[in-house]
Amino acid sequence: MQLQEFQAKKLLSQYAIACPPGAVAVTPDEAEAAAARLDANTIFVKAQIHAGERSAAGGVRAVQSARDAKAAAGELLGLKLTTSQTGPHGQTVKSVLVEAGIHAERELYLAIQIDSLSGSIMLTAGRGGGVDIERRFAARTLELESLLLGMKGERHPGDIVELSRRIGLAEGSAKKFRELVVKLHRAFVEFDAGLIEINPLVLTAAGDLVAVDAKLVIDDNALYRHPDLKELREDEHTDRVELQAQRHQINFVQMDGDIGTVVNGAGLALATLDMIGAAGGSPANFMDIRTTAKSLDIAQGIGLVLENPRAKVLLVNVFGGGMQPCDTIAEALGIAFHRGPRILPVVLRITGNNEDLALLRLANFKLPKTECSDMWQAVTRAVAIAQGRA
After folding, report:
1. Do 33 and 154 fall within a single domain?
2. Residue 71 burial class via C-beta count within 10 angstroms: exposed 0-12, middle 13-18, buried 19 and up
3. Catalytic residue among 32, 109, 154, 331
4. Are residues 81 and 94 in the same domain?
5. Among residues 5, 30, 107, 197, which one is catalytic?
6. What pTM value is reported for the model?
7. Is 179 among the residues known to form the active site?
8. What is the pLDDT of residues 318-354, one digit of tens each?
9. Known catalytic residue: 15?
């Protein structure tokens, strides 16, 4: 669960992590009032969406007065902002963050996340932060320093101070950097976070470190421990389709292709998407049916695929296990097509526990289906149907 910038900063401020003064606004008048309360020569009006690269897309405006802040908010609110991270359809701006500009002596990059190779918490820092950091890192014009941490913090005394020196911080700033990392580490563990990213982290003339922009991603599977954070997912900015799928025990991501997928297991789902691409097709969605999902839950997820007007075929790739036999998903298919707004051709690859019973039930549902014996046969068949070759 990725939070809005203003939400991330609000949570991080609970750990005494410095952020620019500001307030969120949902109308131009609110933006004007928020700007009037700031004692700042420069004010930033920042579109709040679940994506980066907002500045390059025109989603961050620098103004010098409350009146100008109102005008900037009026231009941003309701705007569909498109960046490389939003997908081609963009995201509608429904709120803006109005905050004071901070004069930077230096801009740094700082992030804390789980290292996928070691399973440890990893601290990453860079001498330069700000826009285009991914491009600069790929072009090797920016070097990032990393340090693996334990659950309780740094592994050896002085490790963080040494890392701060490698990114060019003087002794006084290095001490403040270590204090900041300790706070971030505590927030990371206590929030069950997957990522906390501060970019840029600004070093001021007074030697303070301020989080000018912040990203906070919470592990969805840990939300039961954070009912207060779970409520943040319920806001109007959350993608309706993905939220509905989550409520029915399904991990779901809408995509831009025309081959709808129904798959149980994240690994199998990713492999299915890869194979669709290898066969020259384009998936309409990612779907991972959790083992806890019942047939009615799965039917809701399949219904989301059927509602997608771009989907031309439904590829069902299922491996039945002990906790979720094949016939549960077969029953869900029947329910979804009975309820659904339309019928799509179905390409089936079903194997595993209760496979025969699943196929019998599907025969009784009389769906327009093609049964395949292996994944590649199913994928190529689905691609051919989507492209009008079958």
Report:
1. no
2. middle
3. 109
4. yes
5. 197
6. 0.67
7. no
8. 998 877 899 999 999 999 998 877 889 999 999 999 9
9. no
* Beta carbons of 243 and 232 less than 8 angstroms apart: no
Same domain, 44 and 172: no
Nearest to 163 by CA among 112, 209, 125, 109: 125
Range of the domain at 253: 241-386
- Could you list the beta-strand ranges (E) of 180-228: 193-203, 209-211, 214-218
CATH code for the domain of 35: 3.30.1490.20
pLDDT in tens, 245-294: 777 789 898 898 999 999 998 899 999 999 999 999 999 999 999 988 99
- Specify the DSSP class assigned to residue 255: -
Asked if the model's pLDDT at residue 359 lies above 60, the reply is: yes
Q: Is the pLDDT of residue 238 over 60?
A: no
CA-based torsion, 37, 39, 45, 51: positive or negative: negative
Same domain, 337 and 216: no
Counted domains in the chain: 3
Going by C-alpha positions, the residue among 128, 122, 133, 68 that lies closest to residue 96 is: 68
Q: What is the pLDDT of residues 116-153, one digit of tens each?
A: 888 889 999 998 877 767 676 666 667 788 999 877 76
Q: Both 310 and 246 in a single domain?
A: yes
In which residue are the tokens 């301020």 written? 210
Contacts of 297 (CB under 8 A, 6+ apart): 248, 249, 250, 332
User: Do 2 and 120 lie in a common domain?
Assistant: yes
Question: Of 101, 130, 156, which residue sits at a domain end?
Answer: 101
Same domain, 8 and 115: yes
